[in-house]
Amino acid sequence: MGLHTVTITGIGTTATRSVTFTLAIHSPSCTNPGNQFLNSGFESGEANWAPSPGVIAQRTDARTGTSNVLFANHRADYEMISQTVTVPTGCPFVTLSFWLRVETTEWQPTEENDLLRLDAQTDGREYQLAYWTSDKPTNGYQQVTIDASRLAGRTVRVLLSSWQDASLPTRFSVDDFELNAY
Ligand SMILES: [Ca+2]
Ligand SMILES: [Ca+2]
After folding, report:
1. DSSP symbol at 88
2. Beta bridge partners of 122
3. Has residue 13 been placed in a domain?
4. What pTM does this model have?
5. How far, in Å, from the CA of 111 to the mean position of ligand 2?
6. What is the predicted pLDDT for the residue at 4?
7. pLDDT score of 56
8. How far is the CA of 81 from the centre of ligand 1 (A)?
């Protein structure tokens, strides 16, 4: 179940060609599979999201379209976006994925001074699903995918939040944030 990357390669006498595509396999009981978030690419601005001021905006470095999320205000200390969805029943497999770029001015490579957290709130409880830190900058945007199958069938508030210390800011750029059910 879930998303699978499939590569088909044809080998000829003079040339080799490959094609790669994504195969989505969902449970037969999952009648409404796929992405459950609205405005995943932030192209409608803040619509459907509950963001801190200025976090969602038009930027030239959006991964797709012209808008993305940027957590970079170390003076604000804490910034977040959230969206609440009901994951359809019958879809036992759930993933959260987004494209992330981490750039930092922190110079002590082993210290996790600035943090990006992915949390889920459901039934009055909060789960930390994953976190990323300033000591692991990325080379451009990279897709991250987190298993969130424990959220199957639940109404959940998904939060992505940044916590930064008072100096040497880190830029956490995010685009194309999806909650996929299968
Ligand atoms: Ca976008
Ligand atoms: Ca910092």
Report:
1. P
2. 125
3. no
4. 0.87
5. 10
6. 76
7. 97
8. 15
116 in a domain, yes or no? yes
pLDDT, tens digit, for every residue of 4-59? 788 889 998 889 998 888 777 778 888 889 999 999 999 999 999 999 999 999 99
Read off the amino acid at residue 86: T
- Domain, as residue range, for 70: 29-181
Residue 153 belongs to some domain of the structure: yes
Q: Work out how many domains the chain is built from and give that number.
A: 1
- Taking the C-alpha atoms of residue 151 and residue 91, their distance in angstroms, rounded to an integer, is 10
- Ligand nearest to C-alpha 68: 1
Can you read off the two tokens belonging to residue 38? 């609205």
| Range in 53-62, 149-158, 161-170 the model is least confident about | 161-170
Residue 98 is part of a domain; what is its CATH number? 2.60.120.260
Q: Is residue 49 within 8 Å of 81, Cβ to Cβ? A: yes
Ligand nearest to the CA of 41: 1
CA dihedral defined by 121, 57, 116, 173, rounded to 10 degrees?
A: 140
Any idea which ligand is nearest the CA of 113? 2
- Ligand 2 centroid – CA 43 distance (Å): 29
pLDDT digits (tens, 9 = 90+) for 87-102: 998 999 999 999 999 9
**Residue 152 within a domain:** yes
Give me ligand 1 centre to Cα 14, in Å: 40
Smallest-distance ligand from the CA of 67: 1
Nearest ligand to residue 98 Cα: 1
